[in-house]
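Q: I have 329 residues here and want to know how they pack in 3D. Can you give me a structure?
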Amino acid sequence: MSRKPQASVRRLALLLAAPFLLPADACAQASYPEQTIKIVAGFPAGSAPDTTARLIAEKLQAAWGKPVVVENLAGAGGNLAADRVAKSSPDGYTLLLAGNASIVVNPSLYEKLPYDPIKDLVPIAQVTTTPNILVVHPDVPAKSVAELVALARAQPDALTYGHGGVGISQHLAGELFNHMAGIAVRPVGFRGATGVMPDLLAGRISMCFCNIVTVLPLAQEGKLRALAVTALKRSPAAAELPTMDQSGFPGFDATAWFGLMAPAGTPEAIVAKLHGVVVQALASADTSAKLDAMGMVAIGNTPAAFAAVIKAEIPYWEAVIKTIGLKVK
């Protein structure tokens, strides 16, 4: 006797029952979040991106009533944090506040990364962009970028610039400056952008291309001298400062951006939920005021638009790094 009719009946029963069966992962997505969310930030506490991560964390927690914590994991230009998140479970409970260094710069700067920023991470939203400011210690006798270049040429290897990690915008700005001006200001690395400040304020290093959030108040107090911003447009927070482009360096752009990302494989429904709250957070009056006060510009683009930014910037920085001749083993 053939068993095919019985098998067909079983298949038909399963098909009829299918609409009433909700997979466990679909249930999890619908009820997300149910536990603490962690945002891993590849920057030291107190830095501009750390502040950004905490603003987003506050809004996520307020929206969903679940704890959202920020874990600072600085080092290797954000690579440590990116690698941690890339290897985490794709369930929406471990997120990355990434900077452009770990996503679009370091793939060309390092011979090998332990993660692939395209294959191992998915974009949620680009959150903010922020320019750096070229500042010098008051003892440096230069009141403009042109005077600084003349000083560097007159005193080869005498000047130093501080940065918070190889590959971040501060470091790239310094190397672009050296390359375009044909000078040799010596780099001095610190663990994170905030680590530069004590030595800069004490005059142990000459200058830095530091984040506007950190150095603008110090420049306004006369503790540092600001010369130019590294973005292609002047910053509303310091409209009196020329850009590097306006100071004789055509096309000079070393702007930092920060974005929220998740491990590859994170369900689209969860990515969409996160994106929605991030956009609402950036549009809120209190968050906008805080970002404006720090000289940061809110973005809040879609995951697709963020992915397009990444795709466009990787070859751009690859060309810049090749031209400058930078490489980290």
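Q: Anything worth noting?
A: The domain at 132-238 is CATH 3.40.190.10 (D-Maltodextrin-Binding Protein; domain 2). The mean pLDDT is 89.
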